[in-house]
Amino acid sequence: MGRAPCCEKSGMKKGPWTPEEDEKLIAYIKKHGQGNWRTLPKNAGLARCGKSCRLRWTNYLRPDIKRGRFSFEEEETIIQLHSILGNKWSAIAARLPGRTDNEIKNYWNTHIRKRLLRMGIDPVTHAPRLDLLDLSALLKPAAAAYYPTQADLDTLRALEPLANYPDLLRLASTLLSSGPPAIGDHHQNGQLLPWILQAQMAQQAAAAMAQQVAPPPQQQAEQFMQAGAACQMPDLVHMNSNPTTVQQQLAAAHQDMAAAACHSMQPPNNTGYEVDSLDVPALMQMVQAADASNLQQWSSTVTSSSNNNNNNNNNVGSGVSTPSSSPVARLNHSTSTTTTTYGGASASTSNDAAAAAALFNMQLSELLDVSDYM
DNA sequence: AAGAGGAACAACCGCGGACGG
DNA sequence: TCCGTCCGCGGTTGTTCCTCT
């Protein structure tokens, strides 16, 4: 299959184009328009193959090409579209007026891809890179105050099943990247073990519940709501002490994770972003309402959303969100949901799973290095 | 100031679908 | 239906520019 490269004929020039060649090509296309690329070079007096002419024209000489740095909105659009379309550069370029597929592809490979990798996000799947999440690193921030024992390492090993919940792991990654001080606010002296232990309890409880006859998701959500209400746990530091029921354990873990999420979602003060005050109780209630299966379902949304072109999807789990002002947001968001605040947007929704998803949904704007655009 | 290494970008290569004879 | 050609796409390479030491 395939065909022989057209440029292998003798006499065909390769390499960078000269201004004279550019002028010839532009003049010819202005006069005759785009047409048969194979015969064009001969007619235009160019010692190039038609393919080379076409690429030069479409990627560089076309008058409607917008050159220069990609705007933040363009970049966000690219990431959003890439999470849906994959490496369909031409399809992505079709939604970015003035940008060529080649330009977008190059920009992706040289800028965005590296940035996502730095953030621990797989640029192919747009999911957290589980292979890079070294759970032992969870202990490092606390190492100064707490030297891990063998039992702690066993605890970490027990956490392995959490890989089923990549978004929780992303949360852990975010915790790591946000550093000990933010965590220390809720965990004394920056110790992560309480959080880890609670996550482990959540995992065990989820397994225990899975062995029971699983009620419908809505019923499960109600159970968690009730459990959350039964637990008096505004005290985030001590709420993990002696939970007496499976539901309490789950609720406790969920609550602590919510608290951690609240902290992890607060961008550093020097980003220039303004974040509305977080309604922590409301957030915790949402997390309590979202059972493990819902979270898993939410996580799986990433792959399902990339397999269909459901314009109603909110891209939950993709790690990418888009301001409502962007072209993609106009495409994908049928509601008037605002994404500029973390807590308020979801507190009023009746869909608990979606609310939890929104809770964990990271703002791309904050994840990206905004200073590039300052 | 000069060289090395990395980043950025333009251009090339190979493949495969579409289409007409 | 088959075959050859055109065209476009995605991946890769090569060159230039920039930064750091």
Give the structure's gist in a few sentences:
The protein is mainly α and 374 residues long.
Using only C-alpha atoms, the radius of gyration works out to 26 Å
Helix-residue proportion: 40-55%
- The whole-number mean of residue pLDDT values reads 51
H and E order = HHHHHHHHHHHHHHHHHH
The number of strands is 0
Unreliable stretches = 1-9, 135-374
CATH class of one domain: Mainly Alpha
- Could you give the distance between the termini? 49 Å
Strand content: under 5%
Shape: elongated
Which structural class should the secondary elements be placed in? mainly alpha
Find the CATH superfamily of one domain: Homeodomain-like
CATH topology call of one domain: Arc Repressor Mutant, subunit A
Largest sheet: none
Count every helix, treating DSSP H or I runs of 4 or more residues as helices. 18
CATH architecture of one domain: Orthogonal Bundle
Secondary structure layout plus pairing:
Elements: H1 19-32, H2 40-44, H3 50-61, H4 72-85, H5 89-94, H6 101-118, H7 150-158, H8 166-178, H9 180-184, H10 193-211, H11 217-230, H12 246-264, H13 280-289, H14 292-307, H15 327-332, H16 344-347, H17 352-360, H18 364-367
Helix pairs in contact: 7-10, 8-12, 10-12, 11-12, 12-13, 13-17
The chain binds a DNA duplex (21 and 21 nucleotides) through helix 3 and helix 6.
Biased composition (Low complexity): 299-346
Keywords: DNA-binding, Nucleus, Repeat, Transcription, Transcription regulation
InterPro entries: Homeodomain-like_sf, Myb_dom, Myb_TF_plants, SANT/Myb
